Amino acid sequence: MVRQSAAEDKPSGLTERTVRVLEGVVDAGEPVGPRGLARMVGFDRSAVSRILQSLEEMGMLERRPEGYVPGSRLFALARVLSALDTFSEYVASILG
Fold this sequence. Notes:
mainly alpha, two-stranded antiparallel sheet, 2 strands
């Protein structure tokens, strides 16, 4: 994840907090619970729990006994974005 400036460290709204929680789950690289995630992103644990529950309901995250992991809807978005990414084609044309 790209580090933000000090002015951008404090989330200004629910959408930004939701994205930061989602990024935190992805950046963790392993299942993560609300408490650990709250420490990672610097938010209140109860707020993180509500955001995690909402993301789970949307299929963006999956809750497992050991913690939250990216869900099927997030992987579907990643596949679409990957297909739209022309950077690898650009590099291949330069190296090819």
